[in-house]
Amino acid sequence: MDQHQHHRHAHGTVETQGASRHDKHAGHSVAMFRDKFWLSLGLTVPTVFWEPMVQDWFGYTAPQYPGSAFIPAFFGTIVFIYGGWVFLNGAIGELKARLPGMMTLISLAISVAFIYSVAVFFGFDGHPLWWELATLVTIMLLGHWIEMRSISQAQGALNELAKLLPDMAVRVMEGDRTEEVAVSDLKVDDVVLVRPGASIPADGVVISGKSAVNESMITGESSLVDKSDTSEVLGGTVNGQGSLRVRVVQTGQDTALAGIMRLVSQAQSSRSRVQALADRAAFLLTIVAIVAGAATLAAWSLLGAEIDFTITRVVTVLVIACPHALGLAVPLVTAISTTLGARNGLLIRDRRGLEEARNLDTVVFDKTGTLTLGAHRVVEIAAAEHSDPDAVLSLAAAVERDSEHPIAQALLNSVEDKGLVVPRSSSFESLAGKGVEAVVEGRRLSVGGPALLWERNVDLDKNMENASRSFGDNGQAAIYLLEDDTVLAVFAIADQVRPESKQAVSKLQSMGIEVVILTGDSEAVARSVGRELRIDTVFSGVLPDQKSDKIKELQAQGKRVAMVGDGVNDAPALVTADVGVAVGAGTDVAVEAGDVVLVRSDPRDIARIVTLSRATYRKMIQNLWWAAGYNIVAIPLAAGVLYWAGIVLAPAVGAVLMSTSTVIVAINAQLLRRLDMES
What we know:
Layout lengths: L2 H19 L8 H20 L2 H7 L12 H12 L2 H12 L5 H20 L8 H25 L1 H7 L5 E5 L5 E5 L8 E4 L8 E7 L1 E4 L1 H4 L5 E3 L4 E2 L4 E2 L4 E7 L5 H14 L3 H30 L4 H14 L3 H20 L2 E3 L2 H7 L4 E5 H5 E12 L5 H11 L6 H13 L6 E7 L3 E6 L2 E6 L1 H7 L5 H12 L3 E7 L2 E12 L3 H10 L3 E5 L4 H11 L3 E3 L7 H10 L4 E5 L5 H6 L2 E5 L12 E3 L6 H35 L11 H20 L9
Parallel strand pairs: 11-18, 11-20, 18-19, 20-21, 21-22
Antiparallel strand pairs: 1-2, 1-3, 3-9, 4-7, 4-9, 5-6, 5-8, 10-22, 12-17, 13-14, 14-15, 15-16, 16-17
Helix pairs in contact: 1-8, 2-4, 2-7, 4-7, 5-6, 6-7, 6-12, 7-13, 7-25, 8-10, 10-13, 11-12, 11-13, 11-24, 12-24, 12-25, 13-24, 13-25, 14-24, 16-17, 24-25
């Protein structure tokens, strides 16, 4: 499939999703309603212009020529067949499914008007409704065109995502030759050249070059991300000023971008409880409208009203009561909130999970890799008197430079995080089971654990001894830097708390949500993290298969619980929780467990989920109240209850009111785009 086909395919996916969630428009498109509206409008103008009643109202005389008297009937019939067929066909589908809805009501209204007008045309005593019929169909088409545009724009996330990938890529061949190829022709292990400002064509690993990449369109991360040798890059992200050579590791449907598109599509097609409520309300409103139409016919007939007046009242009732806005109220908010979430690094797999998030009162975090980095760092340094902590850290990293031990990686990563320079080292030697030794800046230095101290019979001064004991109490490893028999520093090595975690916990607590730690680590380690983050409730030593039991315990206390984990060993707990939040670890968006996936692995995004959930629910309820509430006033008015006061609604006015209510719902849903996700 070439890239242009890929774009068209994605667009087709969007329209299909719109159909599946808004089934009144299955197989319909924005262009169809637009074209039908403009042609029907062109046919409606002469229908109205040659209508004798309109001529009387405005005091003009339309040109008369043989057959001009038949213009309203002729053009009105064409509008009914051409413009009205989409409604008639939709009604057939609704009735086959035994779910009469707005298409049934519209079809009933225009069919009653058409059949009555045809009867008058062939001699029945009354006044035909050709101009009312034509304007009614035209206004209905305009309303549906506006609605379809709103739905299409709301679902634009898939189109926007599909357009992120470039059409072509520059593949590097043997001998450093390059050739331009279609992105769809790329294969795993191909090497591509990504020039400054170009989009990266596939997921891969940088093998040479240095640059900063804009990943905001996929991860939501606003700042540029530095890339150099061995860095992972994502297809669809935009390269900065440097040039990169990238080895392709994922193509096509296996890329992170394709995974995000699948999740967005899945979320837009998943149904929420509020949608089910809206569908039931729309069905009941359809029944109410049909009953109200029948009651209007009976009442005006008993009161002796003229037949054309009575039929006009019935048609107006059927039109104004169409549950159009009700049908649009929830799907449009759903589509916009899903798009908004995706742009902020929140991939919603199941709408019900997002809907439930507004009720949360407890958030349970798996510690490792969620609140912490999942990789060890130096979290505290106790240096000897007159020694600089950064300087002794650099010396220790220099000693460990040639070691593959996890402690060495923790020291080196910590130095890198701080941006410190690692001095040169030589004469590296591994001390089996005790540590390592090397010469740094002419000094013979050693790094190791308690066994190294014991072997050299080194005594710690009081400060060092207190620091070591404190580190041990917190479940942290104590690692020592020695010069001969002198201890220069002791380092606490542990899984470091993410810089964002304090802010995330504080934000949730300020929203009235209790935060809990759930981990398989020892109590000392778990309590240490809990103290640092000011989390009181800590469950430690919990095996993966026991995590779901802890969630059930909290739920048994009447709590609405969200579980945040990595989606692998936490899968049972994610499914058990009221809301499961899977950490996507940057690129792994194909997480099968959980209702929401965090692309950035940023715990602060949990509060954003709650904010989005609350705002989405508010918009849905506002729309439902408006869509259902306006009918309480509109239906009696359409039936003619204020006829005695000289207030009578024409069918076209009823159609305008109905379309206006739909537009108000659409505009209110669009206001969700202005949501501040940080609030």
